[in-house]
Amino acid sequence: MFFRLILNYNLRIHPKDLGPHLQETIKEKFEQEVEGTTHPKWGYIVSVIQMSVVGKARIEDNTGYAVFPIQYEAVVFHIFKNEIVNGIVELISEAGFTVNVGPLSVLVYSKNIPEDMTYDPNSTPPCFKSPDESRKIQIGSHVRIKVFVVDENKMVGMATISQDYLGV
Amino acid sequence: MSEIEIPKEFEDKVFLTNSEVLFILKHKNERMINEQNETQTAKEGQIKTMEYLKEFDNFHTKEAVTGFRNTGLDLEPYELVYLANLAPETYDEAISLIPSLKNYDDEKITSILDSLSKYMNKNQDEYLDN
């Protein structure tokens, strides 16, 4: 799921940038450093909505960098244990398939696919399908998966579709 | 059946539906274009997220999301967003995906599902002033 959170960050600015256009430099550098990274507690920072410098900057002893305390609001992505999400199938093989869920890439191994869905490598395109072919999973399919483990640093996870109302 | 586990620290946070996130990101892009800022190169995860949100935007307008949120005020924040994102069609499907909904009257849940369907299918022409 996605969240709107208020977070804090210490932004280090090299002395050479402490001149005109400092505000712009702070904003650009901050967004570049923070967006697209994983916060250790809250998750993947998709986008900064707004930011402000809260308090006085201080000079770091050894390096001479100016450290600006920043408070910001951001859209954050985090998948909970056993969360059910929609995703788009990216790769498929007899071993299973991968699903894109926002920035996350999730693996669904064949043992987490219902037994009645079998892999047909000869169909165009290759797919997992039910006996009556009413349900098919192929590249580009929208699937509903239940994610049971996530590594947010590597942005990978594992999921199952072996439950009622999951799959296609 | 293993249920979603939400750590305590997330419980009081602002949960967003996919549609709301898409609005925020689109609005930010427009603002950057208007201010003629040099758009920074988006990171791979951000690009993938944007593509994902466009595929799974169920509501298409802010009014539709707000309308739906107003019908689900009795629910926990995560339950509302969960319903909005997964869009179950029947009571049984909703309960299977979100077991905590069993805590509410089934009439309440059925009525919320009806309004979910209504707001997802809202014709954009109805919002003439948008």
TrEMBL record, chain A:
One of its GO terms (cellular component) is P-body. Residues 82-164 form the S1 motif domain. The keyword Secreted does not apply. It comes from the Eukaryota. One of its GO terms (biological process) is positive regulation of translational initiation. Its main location: nucleus. Transmembrane segments: none annotated. PROSITE patterns: S1. It is found in: Nucleus. Gene3D superfamilies: Nucleic acid-binding proteins (2.40.50.140), RNA polymerase Rpb7-like, N-terminal domain (3.30.1490.120). GO terms for molecular function: single-stranded DNA binding; single-stranded RNA binding; translation initiation factor binding. This is DNA-directed RNA polymerase ii subunit rpb7. It comes from Anaeramoeba ignava (Anaerobic marine amoeba).
TrEMBL record, chain B:
SUPFAM superfamilies: HRDC-like. Keywords: DNA-directed RNA polymerase, Nucleus, Transcription. It is found in: Nucleus. The keyword Nucleus applies. Its main location: nucleus. Residues 8-123 form the RNA polymerase Rpb4/RPC9 core domain. The keyword Nucleus applies. GO terms for molecular function: nucleotide binding. It comes from the Eukaryota. GO terms for cellular component: DNA-directed RNA polymerase complex; nucleus. One of its GO terms (biological process) is DNA-templated transcription initiation. InterPro entries: HRDC-like_sf, RNA_pol_Rpb4/RPC9_core, Rpb4-like, Rpb4/RPC9, Rpb4/RPC9_sf. Belongs to the eukaryotic RPB4 RNA polymerase subunit family. This is DNA-directed RNA polymerase ii subunit rpb4.
